[in-house]
Amino acid sequence: GRVSCRFLEKMPKSSPCVSLWLASLASLVVQSVLSSSYTSSSAYQRPGASAKRPGFMERTLILLDVNTRSPIRVLNENFLSLQLDPSIIKDGWLDFLSSKRLVTLARGLSPAFLRFGGKRTDYLQFNNHKNLAKFRGPGPDYYLKNYEDDIVRSDIALDKQKGCKVANHPDIMLELQREKAATTQLVLLKEQLSNIYSNITITARSLDKLYNFADCAGLHLIFGLNALHRNPDNSWNTSSTLSLLKYGAGKKYNISWELGNEPNAYRSMVGRAVNSTQLAQDYTKLRTLLQSVRYYHRAHLYGPNAGRPRKNDAYTPVTYYMDGRVNKVEDFLKTRLLDTLTEQITKVTKVVNTHTPGKKVWLGGLGPAWAGGVSNLSDTYAAGFLWVNTLGMAALQGIDVVLRHSFFDYGYTHLVDQQFNPLPDYWFSLVFKRLVGPRVLAVRVAGLQRKPQPGRVIRDKLRIYAHCTSYYNHNYVRGSITIYIINLHRSRKKIKLAGTLRNNTVHQYLLQPFGPDGLRAKYVQLNGEKLLMMDNETFPELKPKTLRAGRTIAMPPMTIGFYVVKNINAYACRR
Hints:
Elements: E1 2-4, E2 23-24, E3 61-66, E4 73-74, E5 80-84, H1 87-90, H2 100-107, E6 112-116, E7 124-127, H3 141-159, H4 171-194, E8 200-203, H5 204-217, E9 219-225, H6 239-250, E10 255-259, H7 266-270, H8 276-292, E11 301-302, E12 319-321, H9 335-355, E13 362-366, H10 383-396, E14 401-405, H11 424-435, E15 436-441, E16 443-448, E17 462-469, E18 481-487, E19 493-497, E20 506-513, E21 524-526, E22 529-530, E23 545-547, E24 553-555, E25 559-565, H12 571-574
Parallel strand pairs: 2-13, 3-19, 5-6, 5-14, 6-9, 7-8, 9-10, 10-11, 13-14
Antiparallel strand pairs: 1-12, 3-16, 4-15, 15-17, 17-18, 18-25, 19-24, 20-21, 20-23, 20-25, 21-22
Family: Belongs to the glycosyl hydrolase 79 family.
Pfam families: Glyco_hydro_79n
GO molecular function: hydrolase activity, acting on glycosyl bonds
C-alpha cells in the first residue's frame, strides 16, 4: 500500500501564516525498531556460523532497563486517533453510525481526534437539506424504497432522543445495508484504483449523524473541507464551506477544520495545480471565514497536509509505495518493511524543523495496506505487528498524533468489521489506549549469553518500547511504566528487567492469536482468554497476569505483549 506522509499543525489563531498538517500515511505501513541512540546493544555482532546451533537464541537472556528520570518525548494526549473516509456517505454506512455498538467501540478508544477526510475530501459539497434520498448514492432498486423508508423511520426515532442518539438497528436492515455497501464498494474501489473520483454531497442530516457519533464517543471531530471547489481565476470558492460553517455554528457543533487533502497531488488527480502561495491565500481566507462566524472565531484550523515530496514545497512529505509487497502472512514479519517508515519520518521531521521549528507532525491515513487492504491478511492478527510497531516508532520519533484509517468502513484496513465486531487491530489499539501514556521513555537493552560467543542478540526482530502508564488508567498509580514488546522471532525470548526496573511486580497483558488459523486469526486472546464484546455496551475485562518481582518475562514466538511495571514511582511519570 502506499504510505504518504503529511504533516499537520494547528494554525495560530492570530497569525495569517499557514501552518503544517498531518503526515498522511494514506495506507499502511510500518516502521523501525528502537533507534541505536536509545539501545545499548551495539556491542553485539550477528552470530557467526559456528554460533547458529540449535537452541542458541533460546539461551540468550535479554536485560532490559528504562531511563525513568525524564521522558525523551511528550506526545499529544490523543496520540492514537481515528479517521473516517467520506466514502461512508456513498456506501450508506454513515446512516448506521448511531449504532449503540459502534458508539461503544469508538468510545473505548477515546480521548481521540476523529478526522473526517481522505482522497474524497476534495469532492465533498455541503447541501443544507435534512433527508433527501437522491443524495444517498446507489442501491438495488428492488429494495431501495423500503430501505430508504426504514432509514427515515430510524431518523425520526433518533430525533426524539435527548442527548446522545443511539440505535439498535434490526438485523434485516443491516443485511440490506451490507448488500448495498457491497455493490457501492466496487465502484469506490474502481475510483481509488483509477484516481478519478465522483462528487459526494453531505447533507445537514448527514453532518448531524457524523457529529452525533463523534460527540457520543468522546472524539473531537476534524472536518476536511473541499479545496478543489475553485473559481475561474483558481481562487478558492467558499460558498459551500460558508453554508456548512453557518449550519454547524447554529447547532453549536465543536469542530476543528482542515482544508483539502494532499494538495500537491491535485495535478495528477484533476489536471490543476494549487501552488503553495495559492494554498496560503486559501488558508488565510478560511481563517477569515471562521472569524466571521462567531461560534468558530477561535476554532482550530489544521493544515496543510500533503502526500508526495516536491523540491519546491516548504512542507515536503514523503510517499512510500509497497504495492504487491504484502500478499502473505510472512510479509508482515519482514523487518525491512517495518523499518521503512523510520526513514520517511526522519526526512519529514528534518524538513519541518528546518522551515517551521517547533511544529508538530501528525501521521494520517494509516492502515495496513493500500486500496482497501488485502482480504484475509490486513484484518488478521499478523497485521498487528505493523500497527503496534507503527505506534511505537512514531512515538519514539516524536510524531504527535497517529490517525488510524479507518475506524469503520469498506475494505480490510478498518478496526471494526461490517458485522460491528472488533478486529485484531482494534484490540491492540484498546490495550494501547488503556495502558500507554503520552510520555515516551528511553529503553536500554543488552544481552547475556551462557557462553562468550560473539553474537548480537537484540537485532531487528525484538522491538521494545516504553512509556509512562496512562494517567487515565486508575488501576495504576502515577509513576508506573508500560513496556510493550513485539517478538518477531520464531523462538521464545526471555527478558530480565534490570536496573531501576528490577524487583518490581509486573502486570502482563500478552496478546496472542486465538483459534486454529495462527497468524491469520481474526480473534485475539489476552493471557489465554478470547476477547469478545459481552454485549453492545460492555467490554470484556482486560485482566492482567501478575508476574512476581524478579521473574523473567518469557515472550512466546511471534507475539505482542504489554507489561506494566507497578509502583516503580518513576520520576519521569509522577508529574
